[in-house]
Amino acid sequence: MTLDTDTPATPATPPSQARIALRSVRRSIAASARTGLASARRAGDRVAAFAEPVTGVVSPVGWLVLVAAVVALGLAWALGWIELAFVGATLLAALLLAVPFVFGRMRYRVEIELQPRRVVAGERALGRLVVHNVADATSVPSQLELPVGRGLAEFVIPSIPAGGQHEELFAVPTQRRAVITAGPAASVRGDQLGLLRREVRWTEPVELFVHPVTARLKPSAAGLVRDLEGEITKTITDNDISFHALRAYEPGDALRNVHWRTSARTGQLMVRQYEETRRSQLLLVQATNRAHYASDEEFELAVSVLASLGVQVIRDATRLATATDRLRLNTATPTALLDDTSRIAPVESGALPVRDVVREAAKRVPTPSVVIVVGGSIAPLAEFRAVETVFGSDTQILVFRAELGAASRITRVGESTVVTVGTLDELSRLVRRVRP
């Protein structure tokens, strides 16, 4: 095909000035609209904040009644129905009659006491609510509400003389491991229909730790660390206690490592080399993916296994790091660890593979001697085997699988030891048989 290079190019049509002007006007209008909406939003927020002391006392039922009254009166005016006017007036009258019930001032000092503050799941815990009247006159009867976990306790507080106090006792449900929050305690004033409601908070929330049930393990939990403490590795280092060999001096070597007798005999500076001695570091990880557990009870068994192992390792004074998919646990003391195990919850979605969970936990600690992974019976064994790729050959991998009601056993899968725990009572016996 031949191109005609002599044909002149057609000049581009210049943009219409009217089109440019319209585009500029549209942009200006859009920018003005955005600015106006932002200003209106800020003004609305200021108005809402200013009116909050009034609008905040109207309950959802009260707002529903108010909307129904306005609609009824509007329809009555538009349609001329006297019945709708009567309905609207009755609803407005109910709101007006509720107003006096929210007035009144109370001067309380309220205390919440939980005894004890830490229990094992299934143990009994009691709470005590003490209301002090710090006013100069006798208080009027009132109602106090106290959220306890997912429930709500309601107390009718009688008249309290000036300087007096009133006490209420309540039970805290502790059937399951959890961190139960009691409070804040709030006094409530309002009408019997619940149209208006005014709350005054008197306390801050108080936490009750319901620890998991644990098994008592013997010291040197498991021989998990006992067999590895002081074990010589194949890593060569310049600083340790296990002598390995001598080598020629290199610039930068510490003079304290020079072996002077050999240097004098050979006429060349020689320095000591050592085999690195393993310093025990245990990493304890629980995979909390909900899909890996057959039931909630099996998940609780896994948490109990984690807590039992962790508590004993801390008592053995071995360095320990403990983590889950979303939580890094405090291992300063057994109590601190148990407090944090009370917060462990299953991950419903977006859970990482077991290998990634362990890898993330290992980033914050020295290379561990032993890695213990706790999981559920439905987790694929391949996920546990993949943990071996995170560490070198000097790190031992132990897997504790919670399988409620199954026969407890110890097997080898690849380079890992897999311990199946059917009941918590079997954990102590299984741990004594484990040899990394």
Automatic annotation (TrEMBL):
<feature type="domain" description="DUF58">
    <location>
        <begin position="246"/>
        <end position="335"/>
    </location>
</feature>
<dbReference type="Pfam" id="PF01882">
    <property type="entry name" value="DUF58"/>
</dbReference>
<keyword id="KW-0812">Transmembrane</keyword>
<protein>
    <recommendedName>
        <fullName>DUF58 domain-containing protein</fullName>
    </recommendedName>
</protein>
<keyword id="KW-1133">Transmembrane helix</keyword>
<feature type="transmembrane region" description="Helical">
    <location>
        <begin position="61"/>
        <end position="79"/>
    </location>
</feature>
<keyword id="KW-0472">Membrane</keyword>
<dbReference type="InterPro" id="IPR002881">
    <property type="entry name" value="DUF58"/>
</dbReference>
<feature type="transmembrane region" description="Helical">
    <location>
        <begin position="85"/>
        <end position="103"/>
    </location>
</feature>
